[in-house]
Design a protein that fits this description.
Oligomer: single chain
Strand content: 15-25%
CATH class of the largest domain: Alpha Beta
Radius of gyration: 22 Å
Largest sheet: 6 strands, mixed
CATH superfamily of the largest domain: Periplasmic binding protein-like II
Order of helices and strands: HEHEEHHEHEE
Length: 160
């Protein structure tokens, strides 16, 4: 068997293999990071530990006070997928049911509606400037250099 492949063909083959490895590594790393949703607050904020039920109630408009600190939920609408996963995996509702529950609670009890943020920088600024404010985001986006800290993990997908 003759293995005389032209140098040009070898370079193409090696280039394709390297590209494939790079693509697989990047996709795997991105998928791992995008599978961790965390509760975040400003780096200097004190947010006491919250149970999953507390987080659910908080984002449904229930006023939560722990250790004398009123916790303020900020809805992160910067990424539609993140918001949908949050509603399904943390609040356990579809978007439509969530809106109905929230409106019913606010209308009936007069509790404040969680503030919505569709701009990342405005959300980060609000988290940094309000002591009891919390929101949710992908773990890869919760960077200390932005003045944020992870309060707790909310959801993690199963590893494949």
């Amino acid at each position: 068997m003759d293995c005389n492949i032209a140098p040009r063909a070898w370079r193409k083959l090696i280039g394709l293999c390297c590209l494939g490895l790079l693509f697989m590594t990047f996709n795997h790393a991105a998928a791992d990071q995008a599978r961790h949703m965390v509760l975040v607050a400003g780096a200097n904020a004190y947010v006491p530990p919250l149970t999953p039920a507390d987080v659910r109630k908080l984002f449904l408009g229930v006023v939560i006070t722990k250790d004398g600190q009123r916790i303020e939920p900020l809805l992160n609408l910067t990424d539609p997928l993140l918001h949908e996963v949050f509603l399904q995996k943390v609040v356990f509702m579809s978007s439509e049911n969530y809106q109905r529950q929230l409106l019913a609670r606010i209308g009936h009890l007069g509790d404040p509606r969680p503030q919505e943020y569709s701009d990342s920088w405005q959300l980060i600024s609000a988290l940094r400037s309000r002591p009891g404010a919390v929101s949710y985001m992908w773990a890869q986006d919760a960077r200390p250099r932005l003045g944020l800290k992870i309060v707790q993990e909310l959801w993690q997908s199963r590893q494949e």
